[in-house]
């Protein structure tokens, strides 16, 4: 995946920052917390880019 096509979770309405030091990043849509950005976890788990990205607004 190229830099221009990389999903920026911080611009997604489902992204949030948690209080958990071990898992500081979260996705409200998929309901999980992670040490990595959620889009990376989704890509590694499913083999496809995150299809639930929605811009904040």
Report what the structure shows:
There is one protein chain. The chain is an alpha+beta fold. It has one domain. The chain contains one helix and three strands, in the order βββα. The chain has one helix at 38-46, and strands spanning 15-17, 25-27, 32-34. The protein has a three-stranded antiparallel sheet with strand order 1-2-3, with no helix packed on it. Strand 1 and strand 2 form a beta hairpin.
Structural class by helix and strand composition: alpha+beta
**Uncertain regions spanning at least 5 consecutive residues:** none
Q: Given the C-alpha coordinates, what overall shape results?
A: globular
Instruction: State the domain count.
Output: 1
Q: Which H/E pattern describes the elements?
A: EEEH
Rounded radius of gyration (Å): 11 Å
The CA-CA distance between the termini, in Å, is 26 Å
The biggest sheet, with number of strands, parallel, antiparallel or mixed sense and barrel status, is:
3 strands, antiparallel
Strand order of the largest sheet: 1-2-3
State the total count of DSSP E strands. 3
Query: How many helical elements?
Result: 1
What's the overall average pLDDT, rounded? Answer: 92
Tell me the β content. 15-25%
Protein name: Uracil-DNA glycosylase
Organism: Paenibacillus contaminans
